[in-house]
Design goal:
Structural class: alpha/beta
Number of strands: 12
Helix content: 25-40%
Distance between the termini: 45 Å
CATH superfamily of the largest domain: Flavodoxin domain
CATH topology of the largest domain: Rossmann fold
Radius of gyration: 34 Å
């Protein structure tokens, strides 16, 4: 609707005469009808309403017409102001959240192939009695769920020389690396940690210890001032003393409480995995 200026006011060029809602043109409509008619005019762009104190039934009940107009427009104007206020608050809150929200990197070591106590056993495997093949590693499942819950970015730590698919060969290599306190060479580029405030580091338990590629990663990064949060999968050993290894490899980071989730639970019970992670992340105040 077109508008015009009345001194400092901008109003619609078409006005709405409201006298008839109180007197002057035959039968006076009900108050509800009058209010709905005025609101309909407002919703169609009319902001210029003609009312007066003397517009009243039989010229008595002074102010009747003004009250009707006031009732009709009070809710509309209050709602308009409320919407404007809420939009402004949303913008301000969004800006504040963007400014203060923690930026999270979820870095993890995980291995598919043959794993202990999960998957489908290969009868020809030497480990068939206690291990089976899985398409996605237990720790990767946990990492991806954390990313979904927090909005964090994922980074998989991989080595130049991949680990064997069969469980027995993997254990042999992991033990050799542990005995020599090796730092396997990592594949690919390291992430730009300047983009993150929190580093979540995930891994399985190998021979009751931290996989050596995790230590390579930590010792290759400048974690000064970062918050470091470990999470791991296991089949009965919990964190197995790995937290102290991680602290030693990242002495300048602030260590926060980690979590250990059984690999079989991660692999086979998504609901329970999410429940555990949601409770933990809530305690860390990373999610509401």
């Amino acid at each position: 609707m077109k508008t015009r200026k009345l001194h400092d006011l901008t109003v619609s060029k078409v006005g709405m005469g409201c006298m008839a809602f109180s007197h002057g043109y035959g039968q006076i409509p009900t108050e509800q009808y009058s209010i709905e008619a005025i609101r309909n005019g407002y919703e169609h762009g009319c902001t210029f309403f003609d009312t007066a104190e003397v517009y009243s039934p039989g010229l008595s009940g002074i102010g009747h017409n003004e009250l009707i107009v006031g009732k009709a427009l009070k809710e509309q104007m209050c709602m308009k102001k409320l919407i404007a206020i809420l939009m402004m608050l949303c913008l301000l809150c969004g800006a504040a959240m963007a400014e203060t929200a923690s930026r999270i990197l979820i870095a993890y070591v995980s291995r598919a192939g043959e794993n202990y106590n999960v998957g489908t056993a290969d009868p020809n495997s030497a480990s068939a009695a206690y291990a089976g093949y899985i398409e996605k590693g237990n720790t990767q499942i946990v990492a991806e769920t954390i990313a979904e819950l927090t909005g964090g970015d994922l980074y998989q730590i991989t080595t130049v020389e991949p680990y064997p698919d069969d469980y027995a060969s993997m254990l042999t290599r992991a033990q050799e690396e542990l005995d020599s306190d090796a730092r396997p060479k990592l594949a690919g580029e390291l992430p730009k940690l300047d983009d993150y405030d929190i580093i979540m580091i995930g891994y399985p338990i190998w021979h009751a210890a931290t996989p050596r590629p995790v230590l390579t990663f930590l010792e290759s990064c400048d974690l000064s001032g970062k918050k470091l949060i470990p999470f791991n999968t296991h089949e009965g050993s919990g964190q197995s003393g790995t937290v102290s290894e991680i602290e030693a490899s990242a002495p300048n980071a602030e260590m926060l409480e980690g979590i250990a989730i059984q690999g079989k639970v991660a692999q086979e019970d998504d609901s329970r995995t999410r429940e555990l992670l949601t409770e933990w992340l809530g305690e860390l105040k990373l999610i509401p």
